[in-house]
Amino acid sequence: MKLIIILAMTALLSIPAAAQETDESAAIGVVNKLFTEMASANPEGILALHTPTSDLVALFKQKDGISRVQSINGEDFSKMFTDKSRVMKEEMYDPKVEVSGDWAMVWGRYVFWVDDKVSHCGINQFNLVRTAEGWKIANGASTIDPGACTESEKAMKPDPKKWKGFRAPVKENK
Known about the structure:
Blueprint: H1 2-39, H2 43-48, E1 50-61, E2 67-73, H3 74-78, E3 88-92, E4 96-100, E5 103-114, E6 117-131, E7 134-144, H4 151-155
Parallel strand pairs: 1-7
Antiparallel strand pairs: 1-2, 3-5, 4-5, 5-6, 6-7
């Protein structure tokens, strides 16, 4: 009888941990889907991952060392990814996740490639909220610094497992 009670208590206590793990995976999944939609040059897909009032802040490190701050809404951000002549891939190679109820934060270092060549590196941070449709990006911030890539990041290639089945956008003839 004691064994049954112990097993039942263990099962009940593990439910919140399993839910937390599922929420963490789902939040990371939204961020990875964002990167896939960006690489696919699909503004509608990008926008579908954001809340209606989402905004993003980018901190660009310029050649003179001065940082420029740009704040844009989700719709304007999505329009930045319409160029089908180049394939832009982004990966957070070791993302961290924090979940508290209907809020999640995903952050970590990233590498950004243009046509499989490292363009820049930095740190991404996304705040997500749980909606009736699932996790959505409410806001985020990124550092963008071509000189910030570590030697190991400069040597990185896009992870083939993350891009399995990815179809590059069809280049339009002009």
